[in-house]
Specification:
9-stranded antiparallel beta sheet
Length: about 190
């Protein structure tokens, strides 16, 4: 899921915050898919449960492609991705990207973070200790960058099996408004 909250972009310029909020809404809308819940693994205070360890990926790219009528050049696609790796000791690395294109205006936001993950009572909390955010607004050369602005994020989690028999990690926001399905890299 694109999991960028307004809190994470609080210290980024207002234009970038508006872009990130729009991108978050687009990503959450695109990722809402409901599957029946399965039981969650038990609580583990000393580390990451085996079924959560390793790499997980989520990504969406728009199926609509625009083409500039004067130049014939295609516009960059809209999309989002989230990739993270959970170690048995609770360390994690996470990379997220959101890109939105409207006509000849492409904006993007990239967030890279590292930290510890806390897992308890069916909840997973990313607790960043080091982060970097950077982006560009409308191909204009207007860029922004910040360090260590990522905030903790908590999700309800479950492991489910999709229609293809593959295990999927489902992360749902604690307010129930966003849900994303992460798969293992192939």
């Amino acid at each position: 899921m694109y999991s960028i909250t307004n809190k994470q972009v609080h210290s980024i310029p207002k234009t970038a915050r508006l872009f990130a909020a729009s991108a978050l809404s687009l990503s959450l809308s695109a990722s809402l898919v409901l599957y029946p819940n399965v039981s969650q693994a038990g609580k583990n205070d000393t580390g990451v449960p085996a079924e959560l360890q390793g790499e997980w990926r989520y990504g969406r790219i728009s199926s609509i492609q625009y083409q500039d009528s004067y130049t014939g050049q295609p516009a960059a696609p809209n999309g989002s991705s989230d990739q993270f790796k959970l170690a048995p000791n609770g360390n994690y690395q996470r990379n997220r990207l959101i890109q939105i294109t409207t006509y000849n205006c492409t904006s993007n936001l990239f967030i890279e973070e590292k930290g510890k993950v806390k897992i308890e009572a069916g909840r997973l909390t990313f607790q960043p200790s080091n982060s970097r955010s950077q982006g560009q607004i409308c191909n204009s050369g207007r860029t922004y960058s910040s360090r260590n602005t990522a905030k903790p994020e908590t999700y309800e989690w479950s492991i489910e099996t999709n229609d293809y028999g593959q295990q999927v990690l489902v992360l749902e926001t604690t307010d129930g408004k966003g849900k994303a399905h992460y798969g293992r890299p192939q």
